[in-house]
Amino acid sequence: MRIEFNRETCIGMFQCVDEWSGFTQDPDAGKAILEGGDESAPDRFVREVPEGEEFDAEMAARVCPVDAITLYDDDGEQLVP
Ligand code: SF4
Description:
Layout: E1 2-6, H1 15-19, E2 23-26, E3 31-34, E4 38-41, E5 44-48, H2 54-63, E6 69-72, E7 78-80
This protein binds iron/sulfur cluster.
């Protein structure tokens, strides 16, 4: 499972941080941080979700109010949003 984070869209409500430890807070910027994410484009970050953390990562994506988090399965199919 792959997770993508659009930092530009993020409005820093931090619901994702409560759902999955892959996200932490950057309170100064008012944005989440995708820990271990590679910057694939300006303000776009991507990483693999470790085994056993898929459910939490999916919850993080689902609670984001602005759809800043996108999840893909191993076949590249978009799961969330
Ligand atoms: S839930 Fe969405 S808007 Fe809120 S901090 Fe996380 S990525 Fe940003």
